[in-house]
């Protein structure tokens, strides 16, 4: 095919003597339109099926990637749910622990309330007993003083 394309170059002196645009039209080879069309058809028929297969393979890969990404996002959300469930379980166990502490404190407070009530009753009984004993002692002392007064000799009255 090289023989069909001819080039007509003119050697009009050295390249440094000529301007860059000078002789451009003359330097272009003569192109046969039919040959260009046949070459294009041949090139397209040779590479187009491979390119179309590659395009469909790329589209399939892209679709598969989309499906994989969606599946991966679902799995990530499942892991997040698992982590949140673990967090919730930890919170429930912590709440149960503190609930047990509160129940123990309440029971202890009720026991202390009962003990203080009993101690108050006992203290009141003891106080009443002590007051009664003090009253009896005071009465006993007064009786003894009265008795002593009665026993002491009284001077007779002169009449």
Quick overview of this protein structure:
By secondary structure, the chain is mainly alpha-helical. It is 77% helix and 0% strand.
**Whole-number average pLDDT?**
85
**SS field, number of helical segments:** 2
Report the principal-axis shape: rod-shaped
Residue share in helix: over 70%
Low-confidence runs of at least 5 consecutive residues: 1-13
Order of helices and strands: HH
- Largest beta-sheet details: none
What keywords describe this structure?
single chain; 159 residues; mainly alpha; 2 helices; rod-shaped; disordered N terminus
Explain what this protein looks like in three dimensions:
The chain has 159 residues and is mainly α. Helix content is 77%, strand content 0%. It is built from two helices and no strands. The longest helix is centred in the middle third of the chain and has 119 residues, at 33-151. The chain is rod-shaped and about 185 Å long. The N and C termini lie far apart (187 Å).
Write the layout of secondary structure elements.
Layout: H1 24-27, H2 33-151
